[in-house]
Amino acid sequence: MSNQDRGYLLTEQANPHSHNLDQLSALEIAELFNQEDTKAVEAVGNEKEAIAQAIDLIAAAIAKGGRLFYIGAGTSGRLGVLDAAECPPTFCSDPELIQGILAGGMNAMVRSSEALEDREEDGAAIIIDKNISDRDVVFGITAGGTTPYVHGALKAARQRGAKTIFFCCVPPEQFPLQYDIEIRPLVGAEILAGSTRLKAGTATKLVLNTISTGVMVQLGKVYGNRMIDVSVTNSKLEDRAIRIIRDLTSISREEAAELLEQSGRRVKLALLMHWKNLDVNTAEQILKDNGENLARVSLN
Hints:
Layout: H1 26-45, H2 48-63, E1 68-72, H3 74-91, E2 98-102, H4 120-129, E3 137-141, H5 148-159, E4 163-167, E5 181-183, H6 199-218, H7 235-249, H8 253-262, H9 267-276, H10 280-289
Parallel strand pairs: 1-2, 1-3, 3-4, 4-5
């Protein structure tokens, strides 16, 4: 696969709207990027049904004790690592729950190691190293659809019974696949030919934002549109936690701060304690009985 001509791929085409890119002013470049970026948003919108299926699949797997693994190389892999890294501070989730795997490891986050993407056997090996099982979901990300490292991982994951999701920005006729769910936002040719960190990268980030947030919503990490499982680890997050409590209870800032401390700095627990006039231990048990989902607890 590594030696084949990939010039036919949509992500490798030359964009007719940027044929004179090297002659444009800074303002013209900014305008052109803005126009092209709207295509990434539209392309992601066209994949909403597949994205929704992915949310349901991942949430169900995690609810049953499974994990989600993003896997990719280069920009695709870095975006997966980024999304995984952002979940614990945003949703107070276990770092083991959603993990990002990057060809070349963490050193490849800041130093190019694109040659490693051609090693299908390395992708397969990491699946074994992570002890991936039939409870887990493996989410392969590759803009052009061809990365051997990703396919090696997905094939190995399927052999071990894991569910597989595949993201790429090329149509099925250019690279047909057979994974459980495929998400294919067709963003078109890049402004800089073949530089898939641009629109393809934008589409990747949009999709991962939607999926990880949607999964956390379904797992009860959100109440209304508030991050009620926010990890209170610094002054900014403490202020955010207090404001969330105030907004949902209408109590004073001082009362909200005291309630937050009484709950062990757990917003979800603080809210339930206030709404039900409960002590911390009773509130904890009620949450546990309702799958840690505050929306399932009757507040009337």
